[in-house]
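Protein record

Derive tokens from sequence
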Amino acid sequence: MEFTSITFDQIALSVMACIGLREVMIMFLPDAVAGPGGWLVNTREETQG
């Protein structure tokens, strides 16, 4: 059985890729999908109170 190690660089690259993908979705998908109140990416700020 062979185990591969996961490096910090691989984790950092994965996080940056996820953030970049989210930003691309917000820019190019319609608001009903990725925007304020969107079902995939909701960009509406939650209010406390």
